[in-house]
Amino acid sequence: MAKKLCKQSQNFSEWYNGVVLEAQLADYSGVRGCMVIRPYGYELWENMQRVLDGMFKETGHQNAYFPLLIPESYLKKEAEHVEGFSPELAVVTHGGGKVLEEPLVIRPTSETIIWSMYRKWIMSHRDLPLLYNQWANVVRWEMRTRLFLRTTEFLWQEGHTAHATDSEAQEETMRMLGVYKTFAEEYMAVPVLVGVKSDAQKFAGAVRTYCIEAMMRDRKALQAGTSHNLGQNFAKAFDVTYQDADGSRQFVWATSWGVSTRLIGALVMTHGDDRGLIMPPKLAPIQVVFVPIYRSDDEKSAVLAQCQKLLGEAKAAGLRVHLDDRDQMRPGWKFAQWELKGVPLRIELGPRDLQKQQVTLVSRLGGQKTPLPTDGLAQLLLQKCDEFQDALFQRALEFREEHTYEVDDWADFKERIRQPEGFLNCHWDGTAETEAAIQEQTKATIRLIPLGDDAREGRCVYSGKPSSKRVLFAKAY
Amino acid sequence: MAKKLCKQSQNFSEWYNGVVLEAQLADYSGVRGCMVIRPYGYELWENMQRVLDGMFKETGHQNAYFPLLIPESYLKKEAEHVEGFSPELAVVTHGGGKVLEEPLVIRPTSETIIWSMYRKWIMSHRDLPLLYNQWANVVRWEMRTRLFLRTTEFLWQEGHTAHATDSEAQEETMRMLGVYKTFAEEYMAVPVLVGVKSDAQKFAGAVRTYCIEAMMRDRKALQAGTSHNLGQNFAKAFDVTYQDADGSRQFVWATSWGVSTRLIGALVMTHGDDRGLIMPPKLAPIQVVFVPIYRSDDEKSAVLAQCQKLLGEAKAAGLRVHLDDRDQMRPGWKFAQWELKGVPLRIELGPRDLQKQQVTLVSRLGGQKTPLPTDGLAQLLLQKCDEFQDALFQRALEFREEHTYEVDDWADFKERIRQPEGFLNCHWDGTAETEAAIQEQTKATIRLIPLGDDAREGRCVYSGKPSSKRVLFAKAY
Predict the structure, then answer these.
(1) Hey, are the CB atoms on A68 and B106 less than 8 Å from each other?
(2) Are residues A380 and A408 in the same domain?
(3) pTM surpassing 0.95?
């Protein structure tokens, strides 16, 4: 029997860990900072992968696979890159019982190993663009780890593209940012803001880092995906040039972009409530769970037969369904269990429903009970899934809007961010000093600088100096 | 332009490397023994994964993900296991800039980390069976590496199941062996022999190792998949017990089973010829390639329009197709290129074909040209793919049968195996001494002991001692 969850309002962090463990998305392993992704969590990840992979292929990308182990010397070729990642490296010093001549690091990200190969593969402008993606595990030695949000090893995809021109690379960077936004909003039902990072927050080795940021139910921000314009930094570090149509050699332009199993944490914290997870139907491992209700053996066989029939029809219609026919548990226990696991729709079916040729539908959002006719049930459920998906997105969007403020006064800022109260749109003077001072005093960081040129003059919330646009401040995961 | 391939008969090993590199399945990386899987090779792997994953789920398995890094102490808990894998370990000694208190090994296989978790998850007989699979990378520090066949890092799947009884575990072991045989024969078109390994060849930690073995075109054997009955070895090492229906505690029974990117090597070496790869249609990234033929611009636009139309119809019918409309290459060059890459069917379409409302089909097997009507072409191509798949399997089966011998005389054995001439079915006295002596003198090993009880008395080909059945000897990868 599942332990009682902590309430979100009591201790959000404890609630989060409880949900992840009790819903069996993941478990702690005996290895420092490494988790095990259990089948229910992994199936969610597989559903995410399937959609994302399809979107990557639609936009012309191919998958490839590059080595896990990277010679230390490769990382050192790009100065900012090695500076950023050095503190987080896991280092292999022994192989096959011997000390290695050169230590190998476990990839924290794959720019260096990939660009060492691009040097072999890119000769002429005809070899460009290279639009590759990799699904892989990476290791970053984090000080404080949290299930899904920050783990020593995590699973992700990393796109690495090579282009003939700066503008093509920029176009690709923005295209993939758009793919991530679409995925977050249309599949995860997680509304996101897009923008560019300040220099202090950008990827080590990037010219510009774009991101999608979402609001969790504790009103903190979570960076859910990044898309980097890497300029010619890695081409120069690895001497990757191409011969252009005029016969002269040019350095290649690069992008990289990634999302990880962190998205699962984002999903949990955007939608979950005191009863547990709430899964968006488009990604839910189980969209509809059938719980049969009976007392006698006669009732049981009639009810189960009807469940099986309706289940078959629902499967045939493409729905992911499950029948909980465990005999040793009571229906009430099962209801709580599937609510904890965030299954969007529950069908209860008892003798009375059987008589009336109906089922009782219970939505994980709201929990109201609705009778539905068994005739044409599969189609009705498909429609209910769509409605659920939309309602979940709207709920998250409203929550974010309720907790987003324009703040122009420093005392106000400090008061607002303390709880944390949410997202603060504020003028910023554009200096790293102000950014650092705000972070030091409040723990809030600049999550993103909005795109577009809806410039509105103002004065920096901290320094009072002139500012040309508002940026987004929040406490963040 | 692709380099000229070495002939199989000249130097099979050089031919193999040439095909893998020139067909762009993989490339050498700058990291010792690690390769890069290029998009064409990775797409083949994805097709294999999709089919296998479906077969695993059909047989009741779920995917999960366990940590890459394993504490050294875990490996030491199972004596045979650590003895077998110790020489091949890559060891992480530093993390986050500090020396680790306990070194971590990169998983060479995951029994130990998985059984450390099963201890937490298995309490009662109701928790059994656990039928989990993992798609992952593993690292084994091999002395001599070969693209796909033996690489320091490789990709694979590893199933790890836990059962209440020995007989259930044995049933699972055999079920998955059957899944591998079906996959190899029906999808890869690679005929395989199944059997059990001798003690000298079994997995470190297993009670019994079953395998599928295939004959390559140099007549050597390649082990393409293994399924292990692990008995209670890991349950005892990690103290994993369950409470049975009577309330007493029992150790859990285990299996593990895996196939890897080595299958790609098996596919190349079973079907390839002097012109390059030959892909089985069920797994081929491209099943049909269209090569347009034209001289004038007018011809070009008419031919390309027809290609596009037919390509669209073929796609709609579920075929994986590609149009090679590169302007700068001649058709003859393209033909050679797609033959090298092993695309099963080629469609040539020129002005004359256009006039006659036909296309010219060229099969990668045989190479004969056949006119096909454009009307209903997609259906015809589906049928041709099926025929190709069957013919490819038959060709490999006949090749294996031609090169399989019953040998009863030791001088004969030595003569036959020298070339290597193929698979030798011989009586063996069942001792490790004889097995070792034969290997030392001829490099041939026992690939498998056939299943079933078609025992036929005889005398050991080496020692002359009595033997109850023939076993399979061959030189192997």
Answers:
(1) yes
(2) no
(3) yes
User: What would the pLDDT profile of A9-33 be if each residue is shown by its tens digit?
Assistant: 999 999 999 999 999 999 999 998 9
Q: What is the CATH number of the domain that holds B244?
A: 3.30.930.10
Interface contact A152-B117, CB threshold 8 A:
no
Q: What is the ipTM of this complex?
A: 0.96
Please tell me whether residues B65 and B149 are part of one structural domain: yes
Tell me which DSSP letter residue A280 carries. Answer: -
Same domain, B149 and B265: yes
Whether residue A252 is found in the same domain as residue A333:
no
**Token pair of B198 as six digits:** 């001798």
Question: End of a domain among B338, B355, B384?
Answer: B384
Write out the DSSP string of A150-187. Answer: B-SEEEEEEEEEEESSHHHHHHHHHHHHHHHHHIIIII
Rounded CA separation A249/A243 (Å): 4
Q: Which residue of A has its CA nearest to B53?
A: A46
Which of A29, A121, A136 has its CB closest to that of B67? A29
The answer to whether residues A342 and A436 belong to one domain is no
Select the residue of A69, A97, A117 nearest B153 (Cβ to Cβ).
A69
Give the CATH number of the domain where residue B434 resides.
3.30.110.30
Work out whether the CA dihedral A94, A96, A99, A104 comes out positive or negative.
negative
Check whether residue A197 and residue A344 sit in a common domain: no
Q: Is residue A449 part of a domain?
A: yes
Structure tokens at A50: 């399937």
Return d(Cα A136, Cα A75) in angstroms, integer: 18
Contact: A88, B74; criterion CB under 8 Å:
no
Q: How far is CA B102 from CA B68, B70, B92, in A?
A: 15, 10, 9
pLDDT in tens, A152-185: 999 999 999 999 999 999 999 999 999 999 999 9
Which residue among B67, B132, B136 sits closest to A34, beta carbon to beta carbon?
A: B67
- Decide if A6 is inside a domain: no
User: Are A265 and A292 contained in the same domain?
Assistant: no
Beta pairing partners, A276: A273
Q: Considering the domain boundaries, does residue B194 fall inside one?
A: yes
CA–CA min distance A50, chain B (Å): 11
- One domain for residues A309 and A444: no
d(CA B133, CA B74): 20
- B34 Cβ under 8 Å from any chain A Cβ: yes
Question: Quick check: is B425 in a domain?
Answer: yes
* Contact flag B42-A64 (C-beta cutoff 8 Å): yes
Please give the residue of chain B at the shortest CA–CA distance from A87: B96
Residue of B nearest to A154 (CA): B67
Residue B363: domain span: 288-384
What is the number of structural domains in chain B? 3
From B70's Cα to the closest Cα of chain A, the distance in A is 7
Looking at the complex, does the CB of residue A153 fall below 8 Å from at least one CB of chain B?
A: yes
Strand-pair category, A288-292 with A345-349:
parallel
Closest CB to A62 among B39, B70, B139: B39
